[in-house]
């Protein structure tokens, strides 16, 4: 009988982990829909940051897809910099760039944003080419200092440690539940033997 209870206890914890994982994934999907972008956040992953003192290495920025007319001078945007190569021969970064808009123009039927990182030590000049609206992921609506370190840790292989910790946690919770069931069985046996 206790074997059946042990199995039920283990299944209960496995279902709990599945529900928690689905909740996290579902929340991320809802955030993507609400903010209108496939990647609603970005980690400042360059050290030193091209956006210091505004944004630092490890900060997490939340991005919202907005219409072109809601992006103006002084706003911080996240964009792909492929046009840097085509406009000036500069090899673009492999990851989206986070920079501040210092000018907006309308050229050849398109909106272009001229951008520049806030850190004038690492960015002594503006970005090599303007960014067309269609390369903009979105506008930074707020940042969470240092939370991005968790994502950087996971990205650098820390997910393996995270998976191991979660597995150990599930095993520990299941073992505790099984121990409690065994103790309950022993108490019932003691009560039954006293009755006889």
Which keywords apply here?
single chain, 196 residues, alpha+beta, Umud Fragment, subunit A, 2 domains
Describe this structure in words.
By secondary structure, this protein is α+β, with helices and mostly antiparallel strands. The chain folds into two domains: 2-35 and 150-191, no CATH class; 41-145, Umud Fragment, subunit A. Helices cover 45% and strands 21% of the residues. It has helices spanning 2-35, 82-88, 148-195; strands spanning 41-43, 60-64, 76-79, 97-107, 110-116, 131-132, 136-144. It has a seven-stranded antiparallel sheet, with helices on one face. Helix 1 (2-35) packs antiparallel against helix 3 (148-195). The longest helix has 48 residues, at 148-195.
